[in-house]
Amino acid sequence: MAAKGRHWLILWLVFALGTLAWVSARQTASHVLAGDLREARADRSAAESERAAVLRRRNAAGSRAVLVPRAEALGLRFPADSELVTLEDPDRERH
Fold it and tell me: What share of the chain is helix, strand, coil (3-state, %, to 5)?
């Protein structure tokens, strides 16, 4: 039995609707993915900002302006030149 005109029309309409549904689903998925990417970039930016703040605090805490007063408060002092001893690694001579 050969397909009549209305069968072909129904077949083409089903094909067209299927194609449109597929395109719509693909665009929806890409929209969701773009939102996830935006969130990931925002999270990364926040993490990089936090990392920079931590590095600034670490560098400030290790500066002489901070360490010298703290050391002096503990009764520590800088050594005199005659008190400095240079130690050499004996394994370094072997290599």
Answer: 80, 0, 20
Do the beta carbons of residue 60 and residue 66 sit within 8 Å?
A: yes
In degrees, rounded to 5, the angle at the alpha carbon of residue 21 between the alpha carbons of residues 17 and 25 is: 175
Distances (CA, A) of 5 to 8, 10, 14, 17: 5, 9, 14, 18
Q: What is the DSSP letter of 85?
A: -
How confident is the model over 12-36, as pLDDT tens digits?
999 999 999 999 999 999 999 999 9
pTM above 0.85, yes or no: no
Query: Would you kindly state where each structural domain of the chain is located, as residue ranges?
Result: 7-75
12's tokens: 């083409």
Q: Is the pLDDT of residue 48 over 70?
A: yes
CA atoms within 13 A on the CB side of 53: 6
CA–CA distance, 78 with 57 (Å, rounded to integer): 24
